[in-house]
TrEMBL record:
Annotated GO CC locations: cytosolic large ribosomal subunit
Keywords on record: Ribonucleoprotein, Ribosomal protein
Designated name of the protein: 60S ribosomal protein L6
Family in the record: Belongs to the eukaryotic ribosomal protein eL6 family.
Alphabetized InterPro entries for the sequence: 60S_ribosomal_eL6 (IPR000915), Rib_uL2_dom2 (IPR014722), Ribosomal_eL6_CS (IPR049633), Ribosomal_eL6_KOW (IPR041997), Translation_prot_SH3-like_sf (IPR008991)
Bias (Basic and acidic residues): 102-120
Organism: Kwoniella bestiolae CBS 10118
Pfam families: Ribosomal_L6e (PF01159)
Region feature (Disordered): 93-121
Record GO biological process: cytoplasmic translation; ribosomal large subunit assembly
Length: 297
């Protein structure tokens, strides 16, 4: 906070607006106002009158006498006016052009002797169709979709138990989280038949078993677009009637090679731990008398 001794001795501290004026932040009438206040304060100081930071004699109260005449220069009340005035600097204050209102009806000439030659036509034509029932317009959502938060128990290399889908009950290894928030997992395919797959964390159980996947590198091509299915044109009804069979889908060779490269590194780290391959191969399920809330995974 700047001292007034730099310009005039025996004068109190500057307010925020005065400090800004001294540094050249305020120009024009702000500089002029600051200089006038400084002169007024200096003259009042010579006369032996008490002055505050705004250049006039304040009311003396008990609290003011205790805290110093003039009050606190950096209080919320004192600074709010300066901030509000400073924010208006440089803003254009020109008046907006007046809007011309179009008339409700326009006069048009009409041909024919018995038509009156002129007719008033509405400027904005009304709709010819009105729904019998009120149709509610859906509200526009302005929420930004952020990345799905991952559970603390799910970390890279955690063995998960799938609870839904084609591979329900299978144990898989968690690799990473995709941009959509889904989890990328692998069986591996050679051990339990589960390929690279996307699953939701709402349908998995995280176990305490971990697999070291520091040597596993997932290709950048394995993302959400990797799992999109290509659209196939629908066949004609005549072909279905005559029993024309559907073309057999061929699994792409690129996806096969990516699956093998990921599984090769996974299997190498799984083999280092005894009975881990058997654990991943065995399916999970509940038996009669099992208390689910007491199970430890």
């Amino acid at each position: 906070m700047a001292r007034s001794k730099e310009i005039a001795p025996h004068v109190g501290r500057y307010s925020r607006s005065q400090v800004a004026a001294k540094r050249g932040l305020y120009k024009g009438r702000w500089r002029q106002r600051w200089e006038e206040n400084l002169k007024t304060r200096w003259e009042m100081k010579k006369q032996g009158r008490s002055v505050d930071n705004r250049g006039y004699q304040p009311k003396c109260t008990v609290l003011g006498a205790m805290m110093g005449v003039g009050g606190i220069s950096f209080s919320t009340v004192a600074t709010s006016s300066d901030i509000r005035l400073f924010s208006s600097i440089g803003k254009k204050t020109g008046t907006a052009p007046a809007k011309t209102e179009s008339p409700a009806h326009t006069e048009k000439t009409v041909g024919g002797k018995g038509n009156g030659e002129k007719r008033l036509v509405p400027t904005n034509k009304a709709s010819k169709y009105y729904p019998a029932e009120d149709v509610k317009k859906p509200k526009v959502s302005r929420k930004t979709v952020g990345k799905t938060a991952l559970r603390a128990s799910i970390t890279p290399g955690t063995v998960l138990i799938l609870l839904a889908g084609r591979f329900a009950g299978k144990r898989v290894v968690y690799l990473k989280q995709l941009d959509s928030g889904l989890l990328l997992v692998s069986g591996p395919f050679k051990i339990n038949g589960v390929p690279l797959r996307r699953v939701s964390q709402a349908y998995v159980i995280a176990t305490s078993t971990k697999v070291d996947i520091s040597g596993v590198s997932v290709p950048e091509t394995v993302n959400d677009a990797y799992f999109t299915k290509s659209k196939v044109a629908k066949g004609s009804k005549e072909g279905e009637f005559f029993g024309e069979g559907k073309e057999k889908k061929v699994f792409p060779e690129e996806k096969k090679s990516e699956q093998k490269s990921v599984d090769a590194a996974l299997i190498a780290s799984i083999k280092k731990v005894d009975n881990l391959a058997k654990y991943l191969k065995a399916s999970w399920g509940l038996s009669k008398g099992d208390r689910f809330h007491e199970l430890k995974f």
